[in-house]
Design a protein that fits this description.
- This protein has 7 helices and 9 strands, in the order ααββαβαβαββαβββα.
- It is α/β, with parallel strands linked by helices.
- It has a single domain, classed as Vaccinia Virus protein VP39 (Rossmann fold), CATH 3.40.50.
- Strand 3, helix 4 and strand 4 form a beta-alpha-beta unit.
- It starts with a helix and ends with a helix.
Length: 219
């Protein structure tokens, strides 16, 4: 059985319908973005067949691309508007960045990836698919100060606690969505105000651990 582009488009639509039915997607903009981004282009050749199943997939170098429902939930929680400037920590294969870019528009997503090879490949892939996303190789523990402030930030790897630099670079009125915790992880939404940081939790999740400085300071 071959997989024509039409097969893949149909499979993607079915997947998004399913995510909407199951209540994983509430915002129309999120659903539209998920329908637009060709997830099969972001996974290794051998996994294309499985790109439209709701499961995480290996992207090499010991890393995984999150299951579509997790991308949907996090994207919804970010409450993005067109024109928002967004910081992502953990580019991976670039899929989530592409979804966010569909909503906020070209040039507004800044993504930091720890693994040099993944950073290079994702930069090339995103450009080839027409996504104007800025990708930098580095440790997301420090955020990406040169382009701060951001309206939103999210992490796709789990630190013991969300790096202060990332929260600072978003600042009051913004919002940070991240998995947090070393063994047991929780999805948290931080909203810094003038005086404080408000914190909501959204259940148990499972992400790859954040490497580098965050890991070294985990104790
Ligand atoms: N959003 C990605 C999922 C990436 S998996 C996607 O759609 O494919 C998590 C990624 O976080 C991995 O690529 C991993 O290399 C990266 N990562 C881990 N620690 C990091 C750090 N300190 N800074 C930046 N990226 C990091």
């Amino acid at each position: 059985m071959g997989h024509t582009p039409e097969d893949l488009d149909a499979a993607r639509d079915r997947l998004v319908d399913q995510l909407v039915e199951r209540g994983h997607v509430e915002r129309g903009a999120t659903a539209r973005a998920l329908r637009a981004v060709p997830r099969h282009e972001f996974v290794p050749g051998g996994s294309r067949r499985r790109a439209y199943e709701d499961r995480p997939l290996s992207i090499g170098n010991g890393q995984t691309i999150s299951a579509p429902h997790m991308v949907a939930i996090m994207t919804d929680l970010l409450a993005l508007e067109r024109g928002d400037r967004v910081l992502e920590i953990g580019t991976g294969c670039g899929y989530h960045a592409a979804v966010v870019s569909e909503i906020v528009g070209p040039g507004n997503v800044y993504s930091v990836e720890y693994d040099a090879e993944l950073a290079r490949e994702s930069r090339t892939r995103l450009a080839r698919l027409g996504y104007d996303v800025h990708v930098r190789h580095g440790d997301g523990f420090a955020g990406w100060p040169e382009h701060a402030p951001y309206d939103r930030a999210y992490l796709t790897c789990a630190p013991a606690s969300v790096p202060e630099a990332v929260v600072r670079q978003v600042g009051s009125g913004g919002r940070v969505v991240a998995p947090e915790g070393k063994h047991v992880q929780t999805l948290v939404v931080l909203t810094p105000t003038e005086t404080d940081i408000e914190r909501e939790t959204h259940g148990r999740v499972r992400f790859v651990p954040m490497r580098g400085e965050a890991d070294a300071t985990n104790g």
